[in-house]
Amino acid sequence: MIRIINIWKSFGTQTVLKGIHLHVKEKESVVICGPGGSGKTLLMKICQGLVRPDSGEVYIKNRNILQMSEDELMELRLDIGMLFQNYALFDSMTVAENIGFYLANHTRMESEAIRQHVTENLKMVHLHGSENLMPSELSGGMQKRVGIARALVHRPSIMFYDSPTDGLDPVTTDAIIDRMSDIKNSLNVTSLIISNDMNTAFRLGDRIALLCDGVIRTIEPPETMRMSRDPYVYQFIRGLGEGPLYQSVSP
Question: Shortest CA distance to 206 belongs to which of 215, 219, 187?
Fold first, then answer.
């Protein structure tokens, strides 16, 4: 479903991605974790055609997106949902208007059908009844769930989640994880998830990849990752201050 082949990306003299290889199979959930600044969000943007790499190939549904025209990319994105790290809700629109924005502006769907789709998606994230609230009236966790509902309103086959539980309290995090798990199981979507919360990674990932020093150091099922004695993996998943990560950072 998603194949990333030998992706390189530099900014000036700084090389961020150094030959990334990754394959996400259909209906699989892969979580990418790694130190801050390691290029996780950059890699996701490349997968959506928002940033061009210096070299390499990216295939979405067996099509090389780096060879597509802008019109072809726009058509492909109709089958992709995206949860942004900062929610990216329209402040001046209600919850219902945010979720229904795509349907109202990019389809010929009647307003009553849009309303039904909005209601259905809000039920999916356990926010039924919040249609008329403004984003400013929602907690961070509620805004995340509205973002998920908006990303799913057109029933994409691929979902990108950028840090879906960052900055949330443990109870809200658990609720978000439950919703994402329900969505994966009920809609059979293929998911690429960025998260440095290991509870999120272990619960949602069919496989977990560690991105550091510009490469995917390892990608394993959660149970294998837990038992890994690779020093980078061991340090990262346990949040240890000492180890090979961040060695160039002064204390």
Answer: 219
Token digits of residue 190: 């293929």
**Structural element, H or E, at residue 43:** helix 40-47
* Secondary structure of residue 167 in the 3-state scheme: coil
Mean pLDDT calculated for residue range 223-229: 93
User: Both 145 and 215 in a single domain?
Assistant: no
Q: Which of 95, 123, 155 is the last residue of a domain?
A: 155
Q: How many CA atoms lie within 13 A of 98 on its CB side?
A: 28
In terms of residue numbers, what domain contains 149? 87-155
Give the angle 59-65-66 at the CA atoms, nearest 5°.
110
Write out pLDDT tens, residues 106-143: 888 899 999 999 999 999 899 999 999 999 999 988 99
Contact status, residue 159 vs residue 152, Cβ threshold 8 Å: yes
Look at residue 8 and give its three-state secondary structure: strand
